[in-house]
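Appendix C: a fully annotated inverse folding record. The material below is reproduced so that readers can follow the format used throughout the book. The structure is listed first as tokens, followed by the designed sequence.
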């Protein structure tokens, strides 16, 4: 009897350990982006308009109620050129579900934006944020790094902020794929 009890206890410990390991592995695999917008996330000021590359006013308030990716970029910015193709694809894929993208050009000459947008076939609004004090007031000084992106929830809260390109958890994933996967996971968590 004693040997049977010891074997049962050892077996129970092994099973409990295995279950704990599996649960921890599954929990560790849940990406950070799967979490919804933090409860204490600040609200974004969308109460102003910017000109698009065709000279039309675009009112950022018109994006209320949608998931919005505001991407601050410049035509000379190499990391911006890496993330823009992902934004084009993600906009095409998720726009029918209430996802919007607005690219705001800063620290550049806005005249460079239209040829750039045409060359890259940008399918979302490209807006003029060059030398705008209201942009600095609403979003802070963006001189630190480009690209800077804000992912805004349907309720107007800033759910994610990226300064530069998002970093991949795996060094084996190409940077363009890592950027796409990171933003897609975050977008899907808010839709």
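Designed amino acids, in order:
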């Amino acid at each position: 009897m004693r040997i049977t009890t010891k074997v049962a206890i050892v077996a129970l410990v092994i099973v409990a350990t295995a279950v704990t390991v599996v649960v921890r592995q599954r929990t560790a695999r849940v990406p950070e982006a799967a979490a919804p917008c933090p409860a204490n996330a600040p609200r974004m000021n969308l109460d102003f308009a910017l000109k698009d590359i065709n000279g039309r006013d675009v009112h950022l308030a018109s994006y209320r109620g949608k998931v919005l990716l505001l991407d601050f970029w410049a035509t000379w910015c190499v990391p911006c050129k890496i993330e823009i193709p992902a934004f084009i694809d993600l906009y095409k894929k998720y726009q029918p579900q209430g996802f919007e993208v607005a690219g705001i050009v800063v620290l550049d000459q806005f005249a460079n934006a239209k040829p750039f947008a045409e060359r890259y076939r940008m399918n979302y609004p490209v807006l003029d944020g060059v030398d705008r004090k209201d942009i600095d007031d609403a979003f802070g000084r963006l001189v630190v790094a480009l690209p800077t992106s804000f992912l805004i929830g349907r309720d107007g809260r800033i759910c994610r902020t990226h300064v530069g390109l998002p970093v991949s958890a795996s060094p084996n994933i190409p940077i363009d794929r890592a950027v796409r996967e990171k933003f897609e996971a975050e977008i899907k968590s808010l839709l």
